[in-house]
Structure formats: structure tokens, C-alpha cells
Amino acid sequence: MELRRQMKAIRGALPAEARARRSSAIVARVRELDIWSKARNVAAFVSIRGEADPGALVDEILASGKRLALPRVDMEAGVVRMHELREGMELVEHGRFRIPEPPADAPLMPSEELDLVLVPALGLDPRGHRIGWGRGFYDQLLPSMPNATRVAIAYDFQLLAEIPFSERDVQMDFVVTDRRTLEMSAGGE
Predict the structure, then answer these.
(1) Domains of the chain by range and CATH?
(2) Which element (helix H / strand E) includes 9?
(3) DSSP states along 22-77
(4) What is the C-alpha to C-alpha distance for residues 121 and 151, in angstroms, rounded to an integer?
(5) Which residues are bridge partners to 3 per DSSP?
């Protein structure tokens, strides 16, 4: 998809210091959400290839006593499973993309126990539609989390007027960028 290629290129051109500054602003906005303070079981991700970085939130979850789940990709099976990462566990580079993930023996987090899931995105729109890397892992994973509020995070320039979507795409509940927070139940903007 041409849009995916363009968004990767634009995001890839963002200098490291700008990524860090924008990610800090995103983290601050997520902390302002009511669901953030209420959530006990949170799924997050480790940013790769210039994604907005929720690392400070991951550290906060671990320090607060909340439970943290991170994705581990099984490329052969074509699925993502959420594994609980506990204080003191080290991430390991896994798979052909060498993505930092929980170790294989980390316990699985039951999806129905998750209250909040932070979702990466290449592009988003004000209706909560998103595009990711194109493999559909999150669109497959998110329906298995019936109790989780879905919060997509991205840089503000990744928010577009409209994202193409299909029936299998999962809409977000919130879109949080470095400049704004959009709640889908409130009509987007």
C-alpha cells in the first residue's frame, strides 16, 4: 500500500530528539486518561522503527504493581500472543525482525483480563481507524480483548483525514498524539 510506504518514510525522517520529545508529550496525554489510572492489567508494546515510544508508561506500569503484557510474535503460526512481563524480566530480541519481546517462558496474559491496550500505528484518522505494518496482527489480536479500552498512540502528523478500512479492521476507542486526544465515543474530535 502506497500510504503505508509514505507514512514509514515520513516517520523515519523524524530526528531522534523530536521522536523523544513527541513521545514524552504522548505519554503525558495517556496519563491524563481516566482509564490509565483505573486500569490494573495493561497491554503495551516496545517501539520499533521510529514508532511513538510508550517506554515511560511501560516502566510506570512495572513500578506501580499493575500487570503488564507485551506482544510476542509467532511468525510461523501468524499470531501474536500477549505475555506478562514482570519486574526483573529481560526482553529478548526475537524473530527475523529482532523485535524486543518477552522471553518465550513468560506467562501468557489472559486477554479477557486486560483493561487497557496501547496500540502502535503508522496512520490514524479521527474516527479511530488505523493502519499498521500491514500484517494484521493487531486486528487479529484486539477482538480477543473484550474488556480492554483500545488506545492508539502516534505522532500528530500521522493523524490523517481518513484511513482506508475494511470489515476486519478494529476501530480504536482513543487516539492519542503529541498534540491531541480524540475519544471515539465523543465523535472523534
Answers:
(1) 2-186 (3.40.50.10420)
(2) helix 2-12
(3) HHHHHHHHHHTSHHHHH-SEEE-----TT----HHHHHHHHHHT-EEEEEEEETTT
(4) 10
(5) none
> CA angle at residue 172 from 133 to 93, to 5 degrees?
40
Sequential DSSP letters for 150-186? EEEE--GGGB-S-----TTPPPPSEEE-SS-EEEGGG
- Among 49, 69, 58, smallest CA distance to 155 is for 49
User: Cα(137)–Cα(68) distance, rounded to whole angstroms?
Assistant: 19
* Number of other residues whose CB lies within 10 A of the CB of residue 159: 19
Q: Model-level pTM?
A: 0.90
Q: Phi/psi of residue 125, each to 5°?
A: -130, 170
Enter the C-alpha cell of residue 158: 500521522
Closest to 92 measured CA to CA, from 70, 118, 66: 70
pLDDT tens track, the chain, 189 positions: 688 788 888 888 889 999 999 999 999 999 999 999 999 999 999 888 888 999 999 999 999 989 999 998 877 777 788 999 988 888 988 766 678 889 889 999 999 999 999 999 999 999 999 987 656 678 888 999 999 999 999 999 999 999 888 777 789 999 999 999 999 975 444
